[in-house]
Amino acid sequence: MAIALGVLVGLVLGLTGAGGGILAVPLLMAGAGWTLPQAAPVALIAVSLAATLGTYIAFQRGWVRYRAALLMGAMGAATAPLGILLAAHLPLKTLTLIFAGAMLIAAGRLWWQSLEKFVEGSTLLEDGRFAREQIVRLNPETGRIVWTLPTLLLVSAIGAFTGVVAGTLGVGGGFILVPALRSATPLTMHSAVATSLMVIALISGSTVVGALISGYDYPWLFAAPFAGGAMAGMLAGRAIAPRIAGPRLQQGFALLMVLIAIGLIFKTSS
Q: Which residue did the predictor score with more confidence, 157 or 249?
């Protein structure tokens, strides 16, 4: 069962660059009967390894905006302990409902972005998406981000906020990163996914290392096959992703998040 759950998590992470952790946590809660605090550390191991593998694959294809990813990852790693501290002071029921609420908000945002249409003054992007004028610019010749002070501040803020949420909910933060990158930058869906994967690897990896240093006793008999399955799913997801249109990825993942969130709310309220 651990391998099958891991494959599903890795597949979603590979296809969307988001939701590996936010999907892994409720799957572990349902499949292993764990609470959210019990599931989160194990989910982060799988997400960290799968995201690292996905980053390597995407980097070879030139999709990763690694400077932005390094900045967001550093900011997220710095603020994640604040989220962990916040989670420790929240009741379990409240934490679970916040988790479900975050899923619904992210799902709504992803769905809305998938329906973006042409507006006057917009630019047609590589994946057919029309976007309004944005703070972050890309060099038209290289496709790389043009760094200005507003860009530096915005990217740093995205990373810092992601770290707090990742620490609080025990997720990689991809469900924040992909919508944020799509809103704030003209990156294509596949480039946003690839960049998100690198940030997820950095934030979740640093959180796992911190847990190990603090003496957390991981259930390795379950965590190891779960992580292996996630890496296998990542390979499959990254192979399929280029063949699927960006908006379809967003819509499919949005629907999946809504279903899971409703299930969490129902279980917590019953």
A: 157
